[in-house]
Amino acid sequence: MWLLCVLAAVLAWGFIWVWDSSERMKSWEQGRLLGAESRTLLVIAHPDDEAMFFAPTVLGLARLRHRVYLLCFSAGNYYNQGETRKKELLQSCDVLGIPPSSVMIIDNRDFPDDPGVQWDTEHVASVLLQHIEVNGINLVVTFDAGGVSGHSNHIALYAAVRALYSEGKLPKESHVLPPQPAPLVPPPLHFLLPVHENQLIELPLKP
Q: What PANTHER family does the record point to (predicted)?
């Protein structure tokens, strides 16, 4: 009996692994189909999100010769370190190959860095859509439904992108690509981006 249980578990794991690999391949195929020199917008909530959650995606898109823009909806001022974190974000983007001219940081009271505050979906969507249209974006990358780490600000971005997509408000040539979360900060960014534990309580980070 126990052999049957083990066999069933192995088969189930194999099925899940194959399905997950297939889904990831589909996502990257979407990126390839857009072609070189595509304009991609990475939408994040706080400085350091780009490294902790999206570095593999950004580097992969760079290999596909996408021009990557970044829109950050807050300065990450939860611990009153907003100015420092904005500088860190620009340094991080430089390492990832995103020039300062392609980085926009929103720093106002409408979008506070606070896991206890739910950002207004319509307001986020409006700001996001304007940025997409102004920059001619044809690929949007952001968090998944769970915000990867469960942070409410992350989830708000997913909700806004989903609303725009579901309501048909995105330009016809625009696509949405699920992210590829990175459980570890890439070594080149360790000295730039300290891990903020309050934002990552559900993410299994290693020291």
A: N-ACETYLGLUCOSAMINYL-PHOSPHATIDYLINOSITOL DE-N-ACETYLASE (PTHR12993:SF11), N-ACETYLGLUCOSAMINYL-PHOSPHATIDYLINOSITOL DE-N-ACETYLASE-RELATED (PTHR12993)
